[in-house]
Design a protein that fits this description.
The structure is a single chain. The protein is of the alpha+beta class. Helices cover 65% and strands 10% of the residues. It has 11 helices and 4 strands, in the order H-H-H-H-H-H-H-H-E-H-E-E-H-E-H. Strands 2-3-1-4 form a 4-stranded antiparallel beta sheet, with helices on one face. A hairpin with a 6-residue loop joins strand 2 and strand 3. The chain is elongated. The chain starts with a helix and ends with a helix.
Length: 303
């Protein structure tokens, strides 16, 4: 029963995240992008062009244009993928028109600020939807199909189709609209990636040193992070090397560097950005280092 309740809460939270993400996306459009006559890539961009020319509701257009794409998602990727796509598409289409009254507020008259802030808010919204393992239809599905059947990079397909939308805006409107729309699309893409991959970005560190044992002990003793030994072999002489692998927060990087340099000034070290870190010690609770050390010593003492 507890497992079923936990699963229900998980799905409720996921769908709430999709709704909130769609709402933020629509706020970015209706508060900033549409009042400045800016465009967005994909199906939404086509809907905006038609809206500027004819006044047809953006949400209704978005839903109609996505109908063949929803069918494509069902045929190619199956029932579950199609359901999540339908939920995201319908939710965003409805909220587009429900919040359309905000266009008349005109809270900002500067086109640059509208491009930036509209892109930020829309990007956060899209990122939340993607983080919930859903999408809002459009070119994401087309890009996924192209990648599956033609081995074409998904980002390349989406960029090419977005580029065509922007070129159409130059022909229909003017170069300023196109340039500011480019800025908005870029900001949206960056925020979408940031939110979708996780804002809690950590650092992964690889250390190669003859003093690996001592460095490992000091890191665990003073920084209280787990360290993993990897077996390696030098390419020149074929000698065995101990390689340390550790994931730490941004504020702990300098302390790791200090410890490694103290024991071996010539230690080889790589520091890389890492996202989506999960598990014991990061997203799962774990016992303190002191308790774990005490239990280990007691166990090995009896042995």
């Amino acid at each position: 029963m507890n497992i079923e309740l936990r699963d229900i809460k998980k799905h409720v939270f996921r769908y709430m995240q999709i709704v909130v993400g769609c709402a933020l996306t629509c706020l970015g459009f209706n508060l900033f992008l549409i009042p400045s006559h800016l465009l967005m890539g994909g199906v939404s961009g086509v809907a905006l062009i038609v809206y500027y020319l004819t006044g047809l509701p953006v949400g209704l257009q978005n839903f109609i244009y996505n109908l063949p794409i929803l069918y494509l998602a069902y045929r190619v990727f199956g029932h579950l993928y199609a359901v999540d796509t339908v939920i995201g598409t319908v939710c965003q289409s409805i909220l587009f028109d429900v919040t359309h009254f905000m266009v008349d507020w005109s809270i900002c008259s500067d086109m640059m600020l509208c491009a930036i802030f509209g892109g930020v808010i829309a990007g956060i919204g899209f990122g939340m939807v993607f983080r919930a393992n859903a999408n809002t239809g459009g070119l994401d599905v087309v890009g996924a199909v192209a990648r599956k059947y033609y081995s074409i990079d998904m980002g390349t397909v989406i960029f090419a189709l977005n580029f065509l939308v922007i070129m159409a805006s130059i022909a229909l409107f003017n170069i300023n609209v196109a340039l500011f729309s480019f800025i908005s699309i870029y900001v949206t893409a960056e925020l979408t990636n940031r939110v979708a991959t996780g804002l809690n970005r950590e650092k992964s560190i690889v250390i190669i040193s003859p003093q690996a044992d001592t460095i490992c002990y000091d890191i665990m003793e003073h920084i209280h992070r787990g360290v993993t030994f990897l077996d390696g072999r030098g390419g020149f002489a074929g000698e065995r090397k101990n390689i340390l692998f550790i994931v730490v927060s941004l504020t702990q990087v300098s302390r790791v560097k200090t410890i490694a340099h103290h024991h071996d000034p010539q230690a080889f070290m790589i520091v890389s950005d890492t996202s989506e870190v999960s598990g014991k010690g990061f997203t799962l609770e774990c016992e303190s280092y002191e308790d774990a050390r005490r239990k280990w010593e007691e166990t090995h003492h009896h042995v």
